Predict the 3D structure of the following.
Amino acid sequence: MPEDFRYLTPRDPFLARYAGAAIHDSAHCGHDHGTDVGLYFFGRPAAPSDTGCSAPDEEEQRLAVVPRCVLADLFGAVLARIEDSESPEAAERFMDAVAVNRVRAAARLHELAEQRRDCCVAGFRTGGREHTCGRTDTPS
Ligand SMILES: [Zn+2]
C-alpha cells in the first residue's frame, strides 16, 4: 500500500446535504495551482441511521479552505475510490454528473454577475441595488 494511504477512524463525521464553493484570493498553494478553494458544507453531524442526502432537521455550516493541489488529490482519490469499489463506468457517470453541474453553476454565476449580485453580501441580498463594495455601475 502506498505511503499516502492510511486507515482512518472517523471522528465527528458530518453528513453534508449540499455544498458550495468559493475562491479564496487570500491564499495560494505552493504548487502554482492558483488560489485556494473554500468548500462550504451544509448538513449536520452524522447519526448511524442517516442515509445519503436526506434532509436534516437542523442545518449547520462548515467551511474547509483547501489548496487547489490538495483538491486535485482529493478529486483523484474520489474517482479512484468509486472505480475501485464499483466500476470504471461508475467513475465515468460521476464525472458526467460533475460536468453537468459545472455547466449549471457557470450559468448561475453568469446570471449573478448580470444582476450585479456577485461582488458583496449587500449586492447579493438586495438584488444588486445596494453595495458595500463600492460598486457604482448600473445594470446593463
Ligand atoms: Zn457589491
Remarks:
- The chain has a mean pLDDT of 87.
- Residues 119-120, 123, 131, 133, 135 surround zinc ion (CB under 6 Å).
- The radius of gyration is 19 Å.
- Residues 64 and 84 are 26 Å apart (CA to CA).
